[in-house]
Amino acid sequence: MKKRVAIIGGGITGLAAAFEIEKSNQRGETELDYQVIEGSNRLGGKIQTHRRDGFVIEAGPDSYLKRKTSMTTLIEEVGLKDDLTTNDTGQSFILKGTSLYPIPAGAVMGVPTEITPFIKTGLFSPLGKVRALGDFVIPKTMGPNEDISLGHFFRKRLGNEVVDHLIEPLLSGIYGGDMDKLSLKATFPHFQQMEETNRSLIKGIKKSRPKTPKKADVPKKKEGMFQTLKHGIESLVEAVADKLDPESIHLNQNVKSITKSGSGFTLQYEDGVEDVFDYVIVTTPPPVTAKLLSHYPYFDYFKQMEMTSIATVAMVFPEEAVVQAEEGTGFVVSRKSGYTITACTWTSKKWRHTTPAGKVILRCYVGRPGHSDIVRKSDEEIIQTVLNDLAHVIEIKEKPDFYYVSRWSNPQYQVGHTFKLDKMKEDVEAFLPGLQVAGAGLAGVGLPDCIDQGKACAKEIMDSEQ
Questions:
Q1: What is the DSSP letter of 63?
Q2: What pLDDT was estimated at residue 316?
Q3: Predicted local distance difference test score (pLDDT) of residue 211
Q4: Which tops the pLDDT comparison, 210 or 174?
Q5: What is d(CA 205, CA 181) in angstroms, rounded to the nearest whole number?
Q6: What is the torsion angle, in degrees rounded to the nearest 10, for the CA atoms of residue 72, residue 175, residue 285 and residue 380?
Q7: 119 CB burial (10 A radius; 0-12, 13-18, 19+)
Q8: Nearest partner of 199 among 163, 156, 256, 162, judged by Cα
Q9: Are 302 and 286 within 8 A, CB to CB?
Q10: Whose C-alpha in 145, 165, 229, 382 is 20 to 30 A from the C-alpha of 245?
Q11: Are residues 156 and 167 in contact, defined by beta-carbon separation less than 8 angstroms?
Q12: What b/e string do you get for 331-342 counting C-beta neighbours within 10 Å, with b at 16 or more?
């Protein structure tokens, strides 16, 4: 009799796990009966693409870092390689006050690596610039097995001005979190390693960067760091689902609890029905996972994990209705500038395939730790707030032709996250063997990170069956 695997959650993590098992079954390496159990009426989780009148508009993630190759591999495996496209590059800005300042050349995640552009920028005061250069002489801020907040680390090395007006808007946007609470070890451990090896963060980043080619070898256009699919990220969800056994996908099925029973697990659904599986992979958000396994103490950390509410606002305008003085791909907002929006992408310039000729897409973000009330307001109120903020930097002559407002929550990897996670994994292995927990709440919120986790869970189960 085939061993049964329940995959709770039909987002990219769960789909990646299911696809790995399906491939193994097809190769004859395993004979596992996997079931993808999704509580909503669609697969993909936060991934959702609106395709309308020639527009390709993402409600959730719009791309991924192409240096993280697991997503490219998955895209190629399901036959979408020819749909891959790289972002158009251009100047990015920081909104401080009512002015857009170009991000200084050579800034890597906000850390300056080229002195001349950093000295010339109007983004910081002379004192703020001098303080940042103190990175060259300041001793190490932490030990090799220590964890501190991103904010504490960068403020110690580069000072408050550079953190508040450059690093914070760039890095916090990735996790939608508070830099003064986010764990360095869980989010950007390579910065910690650079300090450990080089003492100076600036020196460490400069060493890690590829050497600048000679002028004659410089390409005409800088290649973008991000990739996406021409028909939207949701086309990957559809392609993966097409490769799975259609009998294995169950929508609108809400699991109420997961209980260890003998060598397997009993799933109880909201309608009272129960089902038994040999293995379970849980890919739901941390608060949901904690609720599903509430009768076990090993998931108390998930009960306490903070989630930040965020909304994405995509607006479509006629080209002539939007007047931009600056040429670029978008801007992030300095935390102390008093705006509700946290960033704005000029999508029609960054991803030209998304927008028909004569139209413009602006994609803005609202919601930050301690200031998430805006996310709970109506779509119309959010749109008006965003337009009011944009009016300070962009002339918009008309209301949008149409718009999409999407809301979701992001997990916050606070200081100590990796240590608490390690303890939880130890307990699960010892007391709940056969249970796997994965997803954006654990080891990375990016699409490739989630794919890696899903594949790893599937591999562990398959290895145990061989």
A1: -
A2: 97
A3: 66
A4: 174
A5: 23
A6: -100
A7: middle
A8: 156
A9: yes
A10: 229
A11: no
A12: bbbbbebebbbb
Read off the pLDDT of each residue in 5-15 and give the average, rounded to a whole number.
Answer: 97
What DSSP string describes 2-22? -EEEEEE--SHHHHHHHHHHH
> What pLDDT is attached to residue 410?
87
Question: What is the spatial distance between Cα 262 and Cα 417, in angstroms, rounded to a whole number?
Answer: 31
| Cα–Cα dist 205/194, whole Å | 7
Q: Give the angle subtended at the CA of 62 by the CAs of 355 and 174, to the nearest 5°.
A: 135
Q: Residue 317 belongs to what H/E stretch?
A: strand 307-318
Secondary structure (3-state) at 232: coil
Residue 206 banded pLDDT, cuts 50, 70, 90? confident
* Backbone CA torsion sign across 181, 187, 191, 192: positive
Going by C-alpha positions, the residue among 108, 158, 164 that lies closest to residue 136 is: 158
Task: Give the whole-angstrom CA distance, residue 400 versus residue 360.
Answer: 10
Mean pLDDT value across residues 134-150: 88
Coil, strand or helix at 51: strand
Residue range 28-81, pLDDT digits in tens: 999 999 999 999 999 999 999 999 999 999 999 999 999 999 999 999 999 999
- By CB atoms closer than 10 A (0-12, 13-18, 19+), residue 109 is middle
Any idea of the CA torsion for 167, 405, 388, 378, to the nearest 10 degrees?
Answer: -120
- Residue 212: what pLDDT? 58
Per-residue tokens: 303? 């009960």
Please choose, from the candidates 350, 349, 364, the residue with its C-alpha nearest in 3D space to the C-alpha of residue 315: 364
Residue 439: how many other CB atoms lie within 10 Å: 29
Share of the chain above pLDDT 70, in %: 97
pLDDT at 220: 56
Q: pLDDT per residue over 169-190, tens digit each?
A: 888 777 777 888 999 999 988 8
pTM over 0.85? The answer is yes
**DSSP H helical segments within 159-218, as ranges?**
160-162, 168-175, 184-187, 189-198, 201-208
**Coil, strand or helix: which one is 220?**
coil
Rounded mean pLDDT of 399-418? Answer: 93
DSSP assignment of 71-128 = HHHHHHHTT-GGGEEEPPP--EEEEETTEEEEPPTT-BTTB---HHHHHH-SSS-HHH
3-class SS string, 353-367: HHCCCCEEEEEEEEC
The torsion angle over the Cα atoms of residues 44, 49, 51 and 52, rounded to 10 degrees, is: 120
Is 90 exceeded by the pLDDT of residue 214?
no
Distance (Å, whole) CA 224 – CA 244: 32
CB 75 within 8 A of CB 229: yes
Residues 6+ apart with CB under 8 A from 397: 320, 321, 322, 323
